[in-house]
């Protein structure tokens, strides 16, 4: 008895850890450049889930239509911001309106009918990246030059506003993608040894997480854009003096980070079958913990941190502490609501985070921020 | 500085107007009696709360329409949204308690909310009738609290008897970490001990958990014949799907947090099949009076009511009966409700005769048992 469940738990921990890790990679990416703990990252993750859900379901009336407002307003903001390079004065407003029209057109195409899986996925990724850039422009950019604390408070404010807005527009009930999404992805072929432990969807998650983390790390280390971004992260003033477009580097990194959140959101909702406005909060905190454990700013470290947390959360329930509890004096049992270790999964995770912070304040994998990605 | 003073003044006036608008003063001309309604109108359990609010509203609309002809009492139902969280329930309770025109409160739905709010009602000496809480301790807590549904212990016994009758000797428990879930798990354990059913493992989860696979794998190690799902459907509809996915074959037993809502079946799909749940199952039982209610409800709101709507409908009727008899004095209302203490004096509700024991809990054995078959609850006999 039992070994089968142990391996199943480990497998579940790997898949779960990848989902947490991928979200944490986005956190780290943004932190690495903007030196900003973007607490709204988790809520953009949730918003991406709603985008994709409503692209899949597709209906011009009812709640899906609310996504339309998001599409129109975020694209309008981004177009307006971008137009600064070429225009001044009222013509910028015109470009902004043009952007809004593009958003409206895309919304019409994507929400007007139920889109195929890939269209919904790519549409979700593209437009959540637009939303990420729009929020950067609206919320973080006006704070340029302010103390770090202002950024932090603004990020928390943005996170809470997005949560409230999503509750208002999309309702608070738990939703999920149509069942066909999961069955379609899960039915992908799985090597014989892994059957019973991983579904096709799990393997997709693991593959995409590793690949995307590697690509993001390569991009940051070797591409020209990445080098600019790193230069910006290391020496913002010097980078600017050398003629690098620091702002544009930040914009790119926000777009990339939120796009990663969107991919993660797709896999998360497909696998866990939960989508609710407060999802980004609970998952975002876990991802943040993962990034801190692994060393925030280090992409590989964040992924490892995620795997670590996933494993703890998944394997802990197998530990049976009940015989131990029965030997304790009754007065103890009454004080604590539960002495069963499995009920303390999150507690253990945060305890470990605290220990890591004490022993290695910069995280397990981070010798120096960002430089060794 | 003058301009600034003006702005402050304007702001104050605007603020005052908004506050004034937000709170319609009750008890003015028209003599409509405001009745408080506490329940989860938004939040994860909004589905329950809306059903109940509509059930109560329907009753008062009927009463108002009938009273209009003879110039009798009119009622307005004041919505108090507790978000299914005890902290918000306290805020709602304080709101009702500070409104001296409110003679009675219908609420709350969740046991944890009723238990939290009853301290406020107790201090304010405001009678309240819970139309949805089933935790055993709800009535005991205050002489001002009455409760119309059955108690969890009855659900626990019913489920344990089912398990005993079907040779489900090894049962594991998955409970939500709050009053209702823990309460149901506890009463099941008590009943199981008497029937020689072994509790082989126990796990709990929080309301915002998303991964239930690991918990089920933990339970699975103990090879249970059945798993008791003690919680509410928004979480358990997800849990059921994930459990079947990792190959859990055990029978699911569930309380009315699952059994009283069709959403569980709708969202869990094939994974819900075979789940055995307790609940009122009034709608499924289809008595004549319920059928008439169902029709009225559907006509007005365009959706099928659930059983909790019936309980709220009855609680509203009970409130009206009491107020018609003794007026709006709080103490008189409490005494009148407490005097409904035998079958002869019972209030004729749709759910059956409603009367209270010395703990102000309704005396009834109105728990039915149903199994999910082909996407519907099919009522089966209780053992």
Can you describe what's shown?
- The complex is a heterodimer of chains A (373) and B (383).
- Chain A is built from 16 helices and no strands.
- With 373 residues, chain A is mainly α.
- The radius of gyration of chain A is 22 Å and the shape is globular.
- The C terminus of chain A is likely disordered.
- By secondary structure, chain B is an alpha/beta fold.
- Chain B has a 7-stranded mixed β-sheet, with helices on both faces. In chain B, strands 2-1-3-4-5 form a 5-stranded parallel β-sheet, with helices on both faces. Chain B has a two-stranded antiparallel ribbon with strand order 11-12.
- In chain B, α2 links the parallel β1 and β2.
- In chain B, α2 runs parallel beside α13, α3 runs parallel beside α4 and α13 crosses α14.
- In chain B, 55% of the residues are buried.
- The interface between A and B is large, with 39 and 33 residues.
Topology:
The complex is a heterodimer of chains A (373) and B (383).
Chain A: H1 3-34, H2 41-57, H3 64-82, H4 90-111, H5 117-140, H6 148-170, H7 179-186, H8 200-222, H9 224-234, H10 236-241, H11 246-272, H12 279-294, H13 299-315, H14 322-327, H15 330-335, H16 345-359
Helix pairs in contact in A: 1-8, 1-11, 1-12, 1-13, 2-5, 2-6, 2-11, 2-12, 3-4, 3-5, 5-11, 8-9, 8-11, 9-11, 12-13, 12-16, 13-16
Chain B: H1 2-22, E1 32-39, H2 46-70, E2 74-81, H3 86-97, E3 105-106, H4 111-124, E4 128-130, E5 145-147, H5 152-165, E6 170-176, H6 179-194, E7 198-205, H7 213-220, E8 226-230, H8 233-245, E9 251-254, H9 256-259, H10 263-268, E10 276-279, H11 282-285, H12 288-301, H13 307-326, H14 330-338, E11 347-349, E12 352-354, E13 368-373, E14 376-380
Parallel strand pairs in B: 1-2, 1-3, 3-4, 4-5, 6-7, 6-8, 8-9, 9-10
Antiparallel strand pairs in B: 10-13, 11-12, 13-14
């Amino acid at each position: 008895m039992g070994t089968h469940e142990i391996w199943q738990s480990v497998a579940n921990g790997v898949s779960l850890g990848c989902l947490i890790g991928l979200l944490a990679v986005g956190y780290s990416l943004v932190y690495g450049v903007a030196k900003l703990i973007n607490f709204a990252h988790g809520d953009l993750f949730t918003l991406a889930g709603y985008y994709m859900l409503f692209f899949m379901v597709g209906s011009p009336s009812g709640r899906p239509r609310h996504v339309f407002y998001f599409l129109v307003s975020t694209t309008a903001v981004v177009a307006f911001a971008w137009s600064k390079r070429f225009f001044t004065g009222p013509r910028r407003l015109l470009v902004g309106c043009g952007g809004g029209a593009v958003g409206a057109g895309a919304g019409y195409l994507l929400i007007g009918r139920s889109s195929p899986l890939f269209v919904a996925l790519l549409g979700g990724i593209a437009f959540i990246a637009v939303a990420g850039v729009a929020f950067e422009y609206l919320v973080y950019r006006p704070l340029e030059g302010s103390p770090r604390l202002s950024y932090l408070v603004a990020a928390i404010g943005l996170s809470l506003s997005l949560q409230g807005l999503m509750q208002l527009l999309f309702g608070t009930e738990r939703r999920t993608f149509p069942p066909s999404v999961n069955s379609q992805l899960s039915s992908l072929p799985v090597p014989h040894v892994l059957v019973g432990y991983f579904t096709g969807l799990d393997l997709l998650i693991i593959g995409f997480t590793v690949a995307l983390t590697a690509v993001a790390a390569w991009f940051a280390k070797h591409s020209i854009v990445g080098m600019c971004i790193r230069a910006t992260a290391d020496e913002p003033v010097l980078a600017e003096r050398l003629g690098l477009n620091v702002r544009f580097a930040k914009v790119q990194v926000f777009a990339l980070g939120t796009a990663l959140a969107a991919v993660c959101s797709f896999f998360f909702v497909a696998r866990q079958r939960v989508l609710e406005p407060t999802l980004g909060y609970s998952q975002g905190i876990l991802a943040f913990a993962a990034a801190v454990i692994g060393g925030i700013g280090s992409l590989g470290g964040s992924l490892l941190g995620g795997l670590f947390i996933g494993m703890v959360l998944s394997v802990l329930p197998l530990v049976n502490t009940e015989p131990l509890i029965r030997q304790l004096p009754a007065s103890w049992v009454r004080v604590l609501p539960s002495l069963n270790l499995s009920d303390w999964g999150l507690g253990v995770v945060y305890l470990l985070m605290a220990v890591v912070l004490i022993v290695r304040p910069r995280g397990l994998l981070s010798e120096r921020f960002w430089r060794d990605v | 500085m003058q301009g600034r003073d003006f702005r402050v003044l304007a702001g104050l006036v605007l603020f005052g107007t908004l506050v004034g608008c937000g709170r319609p003063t009750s008890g003015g001309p028209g003599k409509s009696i405001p009745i408080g309604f506490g329940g989860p109108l938004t939040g994860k359990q909004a589905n329950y709360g809306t059903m109940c609010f509509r059930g109560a509203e329907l009753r008062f609309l009927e009463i108002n329409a009938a009273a209009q002809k003879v110039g009798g009492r009119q009622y307005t139902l004041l919505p108090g949204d507790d978000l299914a969280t005890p902290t918000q329930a306290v805020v709602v309770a304080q709101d009702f308690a500070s409104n001296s025109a409110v003679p009675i409160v219908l609420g709350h739905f969740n046991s944890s909310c009723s238990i939290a709010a009853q301290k406020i009602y107790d201090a304010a000496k405001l009678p309240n009738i819970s139309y949805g809480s089933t935790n055993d301790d709800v009535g005991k807590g205050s002489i001002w609290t009455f409760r119309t549904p059955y108690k969890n212990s009855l659900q626990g016994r019913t489920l344990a008897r089912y398990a005993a009758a079907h040779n489900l000797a090894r049962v594991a428990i998955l409970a939500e970490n709050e009053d209702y879930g823990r309460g149901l798990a506890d009463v099941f354990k008590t009943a199981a001990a008497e029937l020689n059913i072994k509790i082989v493992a126990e796990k709990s989860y929080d309301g915002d958990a998303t991964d239930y696979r690991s918990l089920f794998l933990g339970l699975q190690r103990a090879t249970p014949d059945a798993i008791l799902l003690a919680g509410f459907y928004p979480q358990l509809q997800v849990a059921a799907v994930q459990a079947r996915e990792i190959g859990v074959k055990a029978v699911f037993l569930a309380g009315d947090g699952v059994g009283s809502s069709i959403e569980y079946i709708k969202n869990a799909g094939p994974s819900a099949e075979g789940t055995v749940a307790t609940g009122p199952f009034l709608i499924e039982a289809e008595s004549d009076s319920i059928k008439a209610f169902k029709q009225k409800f559907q006509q007005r709101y365009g959706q099928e009511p659930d059983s909790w709507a019936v309980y709220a409908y009855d609680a509203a009727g009970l409130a009206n009966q009491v107020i018609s008899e003794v007026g709006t004095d709080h103490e008189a209302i409490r005494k009148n409700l407490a005097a409904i203490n035998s079958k002869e004096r019972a209030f004729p509700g749709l759910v059956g005769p409603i009367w209270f024991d010395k703990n102000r809990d309704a005396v009834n054995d109105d728990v039915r048992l149903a199994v999910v078959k082909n996407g519907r609850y099919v009522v089966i006999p209780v053992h």
